[in-house]
Specification:
By secondary structure, the chain is of the alpha+beta class. The chain contains twelve helices and 14 strands. The strands form four sheets. A five-stranded antiparallel beta sheet has the order 4-5-10-6-7. Strands 11-12-13-14 form a four-stranded antiparallel beta sheet. It is globular and about 60 Å long. Bound molecules: flavin-adenine dinucleotide. The site of flavin-adenine dinucleotide has 30 residues, from strand 2, helix 2, helix 6, helix 7 and strand 10.
Length: 284
Amino acid sequence: MIPAAFDYYRPKDMDGVLSLLQEHGDEARVMAGGHSLIPMMKLRMAFVQHLIDLQDVGGMSDIEVGGDTIRIGALVTQSDLIDHAELAAAAPILREAALQIADPQVRYMGTVGGNVANGDPGNDMPGLMQCLDASFTVVGPEGTREIPAREFFEAAYMTAREDNEVLTSITFPKPSGGYAYEKQKRKIGDYATAAAAVQIVKEGGTCKSASIAMTNLSDTPIFSEAAGAALVGTSVDDTALDAAVAAMLGDIDPTEDNRGPVAFKNHVAGVILRRAIARAWSRA
Ligand code: FAD
């Protein structure tokens, strides 16, 4: 299918983007890589009369690895994440997750900003950013504000970003300890049936802290504080793993679809989380 007719804009700066958003209201939408929005327009599931391409707007394509903090511009692609050696050394979970997204063609175009701003429960970056306790910077007519990733996702395709705001960057503390991004999918290139992002800090054989977020098991990503807490103070033995999985299952709310019935999804979520915790622990 081809999309319905639309006007295309390519402003040179953020002021141009914001004034177009003001002028056209909810008939306008920004586009980054276009690999979620254009398919939705082609399927006539999204109707956009004014399409504002962000590609010429500067200042959103950099990755900055600082002493304590990492900042990623919204237009950084998944492919950029994979290729950035300094980022891969400082926060290897990003590379591990990005390599499991779609295929190289999609990863060359799909941006980190588009992946989180879309609010698609199937996208991999939202849960990952919750695991990393990231914060999203958005700019709009009232200026700039920060929204924690753990408060950003409200429902499927609904986020705390207003329609006239643009996500410009993502910032998170440099992670420490062991990490794992584990994803179960039906075939290469597919969205997750279930995925788990885990960061664990080990101290003297004991788990000091653990951060766990799950993907595509509710209509938003799920940061499971209780699952992380179940590991803290333990040696991450079988009892602790059982407790973490039970806590996570209490937080997710999967629905039946073409990836399987609820019981299957709960089962896969448990298997995936066990694997992710075990790998993160072995790397911690
Ligand atoms: P766009 O399509 O340009 O935009 C998506 C939405 O976000 C739109 O509503 C747009 O208005 C909004 N938006 C974009 N940028 C901004 C911004 N800076 N500020 C405010 N709003 C913004 N993703 C996964 O995570 N895992 C997968 O397994 C996966 N598999 C895929 C398989 C295929 C075949 C395809 C086509 C896509 C797949 N994707 C997957 C999605 C892909 O990663 C997308 O590219 C990504 O989710 C969206 O990034 P984008 O830059 O293309 O966003």
